Structures are given as C-alpha cells and as structure tokens.
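Format is sequence with structure; example below:
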Amino acid sequence: MAIGPLAGAAVLGLVVGSFLNVVAHRLPRGESLIAPGSACPHCGHRLRAWENLPVISYLLLGGRCRECGRGIALTYPLTEATTAVLTGVTAAALGPTPSLAPALVFTWWLIALARIDLDLRILPDRLTLPLAGAGFLLSLIGLWFPALSPEVGPGMPGPVDSLLGLAVGYGLLFGAAWAYGRATGREGLGGGDLKLLGAQGAWLGPVAVLLALFLAALLGSVIGGLILLFRGGDRHLAIPFGPFLAAGGWALFLWKAELIRWYFGLSGLSG
C-alpha cells in the first residue's frame, strides 16, 4: 500500500482510538457513548477541541488535566497509538479489498475489549455477544458476496464453520476453566474470556480459533513470565487474559492461512 493511504489509515486509527477511549470508560458504567462530550474523569472539566486531539493533546498537556492538574492515565494515548498502528497494519495487509472493512471492525472491537479488560478485569457481554452475532451475520453475507468468502483475503468462514468456531471456542475454554477449578479450587478464567473466544470463533472458524487460543496462551506465558520475573511476588498474580486472546484472534484473522501452515509445520503435521 502506498504511503498516502497508509498514513490516512493511521490517522483514521487515531480518531477511532479516541472514541474507543470513550467506549472503554463509559460502556462498563452504563453511560451514554454520545453525550455529554469528553471530560476529565476526575474534575469533570469539559475538554476543548485542542485538548481532545489524539495523542497530541496528551503531550501538549504534559499528561495532566489543564483544570485540576491531576494525571491523565497513560492508557488513553496508548489506546489511540495502538489503534493507529493496528489500523495501518490491517490496511497494509489487506489493501483496498472487501475484506478490509470487516477486518477493521474486528480490530477495533478487540482493542476496546482488551482495554476494558486491562482497566477493569471484565469483558462486557455488551461487546462480546454482539461481536459473536456480527461474525455469524458476516458469514451469512458471504454466501451472497463471494468477496468475503474464505477463498478471498483472510475471509470469513461459512455459516456452519462460524457456528462450529463459536461452539469450539466457548466450549474449549469452558472445559479448561472447569478442569482448572476442579484441580485447584480457584477460578482461572472468567466467563468473559469464554465468550470472547467463542465470539472470535464465529469470525475465524473452528480450526483457526484453536490456533488463536494457542497463540494467546503462548503470548500470555511469555509476558506473564516477564512480569513475574521483574516484579516478583505471588506466582498466582492475576493477569487479564482478554488482551492475549484479542491479539491471537486479530493475528489469525489477518494471516489465517500463513499461521495455520506455520503451526502444522512446527508440529510436524504438514506434508
């Protein structure tokens, strides 16, 4: 993709990332996503236009509210920057194809869920359940629009595979959580994790959702190990799994065929 469209995608990502900050802050609290306008969460100061520029305003304000002087969480500019980067990567990977719009929606939805899980350790049904429904709906649309079929771009699975993916994703984590609880007497995974993997299965299909879980577990083990190494403390430290699930699902949606080939080659099952 040329530099111009790629830069445009990144700018779009910054704008969407700013809205995702609103979603992450208000949706779990049951507040409107539209009104009132953006304000400081500490003192309620209504942000002027120049105070609400993605990333730039954070730098101009020195990371503090102009009215009360209290710190603005670093997660706000990081969400905006992350959305810009992942939007650009998604646009570069797919180009101007019919698959780009669903891929961007999937990307932004996962960023919102990951951010909420990092902040509050929850994955709201108001996001996970519609994500599952949207995945199945797009699989039906693919029957009439072949450009969204699995043979074109990353593609959506067909309706049967979408339902199977949802069942496998949810059922697999349900079984793992049940076994962990029986063995340790502790809750290892929340219901939101189960619903998120099931929702991703509706977008990925049964085979890819298994690999998405594998990547999430691998990434979670590495990052969790590093956190414990540098922070020390309780080996049972609670680390939200949602961001790792989101990362695995996002990667599989964009590079499904390549990652499946890589995994089968790694496991010696190919050829």
About this structure: The chain has two domains: 1-96, 119-271.
